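Morning run. Coffee first, then this:
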Amino acid sequence: MQLPDIINRSRADLLDYIFIVLGMALYAIGFTVFILPHDIVVGGMAGFGTLVYFASGERIPVAVTMYVVNILMLVCWHRVLGRKFVIGTVFGASVLSLMIGSIEQYFTSHAPVVTDMTMSVILGAVLCGCGIGLYYAHKGSAGGTDIVAAVFEKKSNMSIGRTMMVIDMTIVACSFFLPFDGDMDARIQSRVQTIVYGLVSIVIYSFLANYIVNADKQTIQFLILSPRWHEIADNITHRSGRGVTTFDGRGFWTGEERTMLVVWCRQYDADRIYDIVREIDEGAYIIQSEARSVYGNGFDPLSHKRRKKNLS
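And here it is:
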């Protein structure tokens, strides 16, 4: 690898780490400032740490539980997860635990910044979702349910997304059994409300994180009809770097021969495609639609995970 390539790679890695830290800062603020002060248990390792925090009478900080459990899981499953995943997760778990640990004592010992629980949880979930999406998009990991989900994916046929959803919902549901001063009716009224808030926060931050991570990866399909199709295809190929496929057709009413262009591209290429077509033929017909999955050169690799046979 030549020196310019090494420099560019180093800059890209540095930028990734900056965004990872920024994303974790957003998550730490959203969770510690807006969710934890209202005694809401969310998903992930932060939620598990919250369970331990309240079960211990607020003696064991959330950050301590998060960090200790993350390290224990990495030690137990480091051979399954791989060296690169372990190193990245140790970095992420350390940064996030340090951030949460540095501010949780203050915000749990004072009145909530936003007194309205609904607004506070929504704002916290939005910040958490933006933070998760930001550090995921730059190949970061804070451990927690990521570790368990990665192990399950390697050892079984359960996807990472489904595993994380089951774990998160289980953590939130377990908050029902936390210590409570009152009879069963009072417990049900209080705990069901906080469980609902916890589940709503999971939906919000999961949606936002997924949107941020996949926004630039979304595949767009263009169908273009224009008498200047050859010029449009040539410009798309050379100016956007995307391939073009042509189909010969015939207009039903006019009977004229037509050539249709088919272009697949990422979301971030869409505006460039529009600009090229607009420059050449403002009267061209353009149909844009989302392609659920495109595999092959320039897109996602075509892979298939073989399902394990049931030998029982």
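Residues 307-312 have pLDDT under 50 and may be disordered. Good start to the day.
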